[in-house]
Amino acid sequence: MAFSYSQVDKTRTQDEETLIPMSPHSQCLNTSIISLNILFIVELQNVLDEIHIANFIRNMFIPSNARFSSVVDVNEKGVPCWKKVDVKVEDHIIVPTFEEGLSKMDNDENLREYLSKIAGERLSSNRPLWEIHVVKYPTFNGGSVVYKISHAIGDGYSLISTVYAIFRKADDPSLRLTLPNISLRPNALRNRSLLSFFSKCKNTISNATLSLLKGSVLEDSKSAIRSGKLGVEFDPIAISSMSIPMESLKQIKSKVGGTLNDVVTGVIYYMIHLYMLRTGDISSQKSMNLLVMFNMRMIKGYKSIEEMMNANIWGNHVSSLVVPVPCISGELQVDPLHFVTKAKDIMERKKNSFHTYLTNPLIKVLTRIRGPKGVAEFLHKNFRNTTASVTSLIGPNEKMGMAGHPVDSCYFIVAGVPQSLTFTVASWMGQLRLTTTVEKNFIDSQLFNACMKEAYENIFQAACTRE
User: Fold this and answer.
1) Pick from 175, 207, 237: which residue ends a domain?
2) Are 193 and 124 within one domain?
3) What one-character-per-residue DSSP string does 11-40 give?
4) Residue 10 pLDDT grade (very low, low, confident, very high; cuts 50, 70, 90)
């Protein structure tokens, strides 16, 4: 049989067509310097077996986006790309084994320990960057399904669009979930007076300067919630979470003003204050900051997964703001609502700038100058030099089902963050789920969880009694 160069050229062209360049954000989130994974935990009303989940993954999850059937490769120019491959679903499904005959409380503890274990493990680079862990032991709900997905595939906004595409309404599994009709319009687009413009420019310079310093040399104080340890992202973590009725948050908001995000930030401020107070590490002289993540696509509201792919806005489009944590002397008696009003004032000022719009252009410039590893180093230092990070998602408000099984609740964590403390916030079916991950051998997770509950309860009581 004669050798055909045209066939080689055709095969090479086909291979190149299957290689889709990774975005700068995605490249820097899958390096030896920083590798972030999203763990999305679905709590079901009953136990789901691996056969049902395999069919669901094969028929719903994988077809929803090409990234779920792609591996990371490089093209002829050495640029990291997504390469389409055949997926063997069974290689991605893991069924852990716990001790039999335990109580729901013990199973719940085993699940948290298991989440801590898999959070510290890297995903295999030889297959698409995701895993499904089917936990068949009933906790306080039923069983659980854990989606572990590389942040390089997409951010929370991208992945939540997958939930809207593949989950269904609990009362009618033939219907998709309804996309929320909301958008986040930053202050930079509201007031267009000259004075306001100069104020925004001033805030932009301040925010950008602080971000650059945190990404290089300026470090927060060490404290009871920040060890400052190198390699903290590889240490064991402890996970705690609590559910808050959205209606109660709206009651607080109606008394204090601001946004629901301001109320949640106020609760975070107060729980940090309480924990620092309990551990005797309270001081007004400490430098403490949150790295608050924003998704730029939320400015235009939620889009379906089809709209995102057609508009080429799938992936990672995240900006961040360095937000100071108010430090108050332990001797002072503080009104719990002070932390909410403080959060409102700080966030109003921080968002009143053009900084979030500059993130993507700056990342592209930094990628050209220093390459993906340079961007990864900058991102790593931004996390490591701040005290904690906060990221949030808005989920469906209606009851939902997965693979024909009713869902009780959901929450998520971001694994691999080089911090002793991280917060994730998600709204699901009328509830807000506030989850913390802490450095296990440094922060007292039980005490911090108690402070989290006390902070919310005190703020709610203070708001309800305010005239």
Assistant:
1) 175
2) no
3) HHHHHHHTEEEPPHHHHHTBSSS-B-EEEE
4) very low
Q: How many CB atoms lie within 10 A of CB 380?
A: 18
Q: Show the domain range for 351.
A: 187-299+307-393+430-465
Token pair belonging to 406? 């009713």
Q: At what angle do helices 260-278 and 445-465 cross, to 10 degrees?
A: 130
Quick check: 385 pLDDT over 90? yes
**Residue 4's pLDDT band (cuts 50, 70, 90):** very low
Give me the pLDDT at residue 159, please: 85
In a domain, 413, yes or no: no
C-alpha dist (Å) from residue 249 to 69, 129, 243, 252, 260: 40, 36, 11, 5, 7
Instruction: Give the Cα separation of 258 and 83 in Å (integer).
Output: 45
Among 217, 90, 82, 202, smallest CA distance to 152 is for 82
Please check whether residue 16 lies inside any domain of the structure: no
Contact 414, 420 (CB under 8 A): no
Confidence at 15, pLDDT banded by 50, 70, 90:
very low
Longest Cα pair distance anywhere in the chain, in angstroms?
91
Task: Work out how many domains the chain is built from and give that number.
Answer: 2
The mean per-residue pLDDT over the stretch 46-73 comes to: 92
Is the dihedral angle over the CA atoms 440, 290, 375, 391 positive or is it negative?
Answer: positive
Q: Give the end of a domain, one of 151, 175, 199.
A: 175
Helices (H), 168-301: 194-214, 246-256, 260-278
**305 SS3 class:** helix
Does 181 map to a domain?
no
Whether residues 58 and 202 fall in one domain: no
Does residue 290 sit in the same domain as residue 360? yes
DSSP string, 357-425: HHHHHHHHHHHHHHHHHHHHHHHHHHHHTSSEEEEEEE--SS-EEETTEEEEEEEEEEET-SSSEEEEE
> What number of CA atoms fall less than 13 Å from residue 142's CA on the CB side?
14
Tell me which of 119-133, 173-187, 197-211, 274-288 is least confident.
173-187
pLDDT confidence of residue 27: 86
Least confident of 149-163, 185-199, 434-448: 185-199
Confidence of residue 14 (pLDDT cuts 50, 70, 90): very low
Q: Residues 194, 275: one domain? A: yes
Q: Is 313 in the same domain as 335?
A: yes
Structure confidence by residue, pLDDT tens digits, 108-126: 999 999 999 999 999 999 9
